[in-house]
Amino acid sequence: MNTDPLLFEFPILQFDLSLLPIAETVLKADPVLLTDSIVRYLTERFQPLGGTANILVRGDRVAVSWVPASGKDADKLLEYAVSLLRRRAFTEAEAILRGLLKSPTPPVMASFNLGMLLSDQGRLDEAVELLEQVVEERPSAADAWNALGIALQRKGDRVRALEAIERSHELDPDNPYTLRNLGALLANESPKAGLPYLKRAAELLPTESVVAFGYAQALLQCGETNAADQVFQNVIRLAPYSEIARRAQEERTRLAELTLRERGGEVRMDVVMYISGALKLFGELGTKATQALTVEIALLGSKGLDINDPTAKYELKSLPGKFSGLHLLAYLYAGLQQVAPGKDAGIDFSKEYEMAKQMR
Amino acid sequence: MPALDAVFALVKERTGFPVVVMSSPEQTTHVSMRAATKEFPVHTVLLNPKYQDSANYLIAIQCAGILFKWADPRGIQNFVENREKADFLRTKIAQKTERKGVPPQNAARFADATVSGLLQQVASMPLEILSLRWFHGAFPELRGEQENYVSGYLREISAVMNPQIREFCPPDIFEKSLAMNAAFTVAWSGLTGSEVALIPYEAIGSLNLGRELNEVLADIEPFGPESYVRAVDAWATRLDMADWYTWQLRTL
Fold first, then answer.
1. Residues 30-89 of B with CB under 8 A from A
2. CA-CA distances (angstroms) from residue A319 to A316, A323, A334?
3. Regarding predicted confidence, which is higher, B140 or A268?
4. In terms of Cα–Cα distance, which of A309, A305, A360, A308 is closest to A331?
5. Given the DSSP bridges, would you call strands B19-23 and B43-47 parallel, antiparallel or unpaired?
6. Residue B190 touches partner A, C-beta closer than 8 Å
7. Chain-centre distance of CA B165, in angstroms?
8. Helix ranges, chain B (H)
9. Cα R_g (chain B), whole angstroms
10. Is residue A39 within 8 angstroms of chain B, CB to CB?
11. Between β-strands A6-11 and A61-67, what pairing exists: parallel, antiparallel or unpaired?
12. Which of A2-6, A101-105, A172-176, A199-203 has the lowest mean pLDDT?
């Protein structure tokens, strides 16, 4: 790549203010502060890229003129645009990518990234057009075929989407993102057809909880509940505090409840007995101790209680003895009814609870 | 996450109690910590799942708070407002607010929130800065997560400069609060080299005091036995708030 000057500009009002570490209300109330902050922000971003940058405010637009000192500097700008894409700062990323495309020797990666940006934003006609140009120029670029397939899928053109993603798979059979997308596309029609690809994607991306979650869902749809449960557990291990972990935990609870009902019928008498015992115990303990006990079980439960294993393997600090997962879950349900009615225990023991109350 | 495991182990070693993290969608703040007691012998971090992208950072910072507050071998120093002084200030602010045409009940609520908020800020922000630096040095692999969270936090705290808030807040309170926010911003700027966030503080004139507050924390070591009290007292003295609170020692 040569070192021609790169020019781009964008309206100040379209600048993504979430990139700045200053409250939007404060920036919008002070136009001078707004422009000063944007100019300083861009100056700081261009400084490590090398070359010479001039950032000017012209009326309601910010204009950037940048002369890279070498071809490597220009590559850094492309990397910077990609980092903006990751942060979803689309306006600035788009301005830079379009600026790069206007240069005498536009880098194909700028077209590729702009195509993906437009695809993510739902501007699908232009996205497909750009990505088609990329695959024409680089017919062996598996990532580009994959991105084209996604854009086509978003346009609703499933047949061409599948062709493009299959082409990507032929070119790079172990590309995990292609495998994931191919698996998901096939699984929409037939979970069994998508499953091997999703499995391989999960193997190649062992730390990606979202990929593992997709694989677990496909396993579930194929009726492989035990294997699905194992993968859901892995999702929780990979990102224990994430939304995806919460969804995996919900799926695990749902699976456990299904298994429980299948094995034990409509009303579980063992649960009724556990709840009845819990109500008696709570009466003796009083509210404060009941609360502490319930919170302790909830904490233990947040790591997952195995309610299908009858072994008494759990211990509590606030209550002597060993308990099975089902026993503790029954205590938790009863405890929450006492100290925080309406709070979700993650499982519905309402029939058992009512029956236990009638028995007292 | 090995980084968090190490922090949890440190908390267990220093306090004798383990840390448990719970997702708490009802949480109104980003994260909170319930310190262990004899009755409930677990430090519980309640994390708002909305902030899951910064979970490691938020959890580690809560643990750092415990490590600071439990570092004194004699017991835990509790920051307690000086009721007489705080009530005097509440009454004064409420009266001034009423004179601006605000109904008495609302004026009283505003005064209470203002005084309590400032006390909370002086009790917590020095530790936030010390923890911010500790995390940055201890976990370089998690700096992306830290930056992601702190950028949002800087946006939140800079909202105090909103002209409407400024108009209503008593100038003395406003300046103190702003100087503490400026100190945090200076600390972050020192770690990252970025000065964008400093611009509004410079424009409003609170940057110098912010730099001073930041400077007084320079020689305070993380998790030293007196670090918590020293840091808060140093800020309170500089901000003329030393008689707004007292320390009460709670034995373990």
1. 39-42, 44, 47, 49, 52, 55, 59
2. 5, 10, 15
3. B140
4. A305
5. parallel
6. no
7. 20
8. 2-15, 55-69, 83-98, 104-138, 143-158, 163-168, 171-192, 199-204, 207-216, 227-238
9. 19
10. no
11. antiparallel
12. A2-6
The pLDDT tens digits for A217-265 are 999 999 998 899 899 989 988 888 778 887 887 788 777 777 766 766 6
Taking only the tens place, the pLDDT of each residue in B235-250 is 999 999 999 999 998 8
- At residue B80, the 3 state secondary structure works out as strand
Residues contacting residue A44 through CB under 8 Å, at least 6 positions apart: B193, B194, B195, B196
Q: Nearest CA of chain B to the CA of A307: how many Å?
A: 20
The C-alpha angle with vertex A64 and arms to A60 and A70, in degrees rounded to 5, equals 175
Q: Best of A39, A241, A296, A303 to disrupt the B interface by mutation (most B CBs within 10 Å)? A: A241
Residues 92-121 of B with CB under 8 A from A: none
| Interchain CB distance below 8 Å, B155 and A22 | yes
DSSP structure class, residue B189: H
- Residue A359: predicted pLDDT: 64
Task: Name, in order, each residue with C-beta under 8 angstroms of B63's C-beta and a sequence gap of 6 or more.
Answer: B7, B8, B10, B11, B19, B33, B43, B45
Helices (H), chain A: 24-28, 31-46, 71-86, 90-101, 108-120, 124-137, 142-155, 158-171, 176-189, 191-204, 209-221, 225-238, 243-264, 269-285, 287-302, 325-339, 350-359
Q: Under a CB-based contact definition with an 8 Å cutoff, are residues A112 and A128 in contact? A: no
Residue with tokens 């407002």: B81
B241 touches chain A (CB under 8 A): no
Distance of CA B142 to the CA centre of its chain: 21
Look up residue B114 and give its two tokens.
Answer: 């203002």
Q: Give the chain A residue whose CA is nearest to the CA of B157.
A: A23
Burial bucket for residue B49 (CB in 10 Å: 0-12, 13-18, 19+): middle
Task: Decide if pLDDT at A1 tops 60.
Answer: no
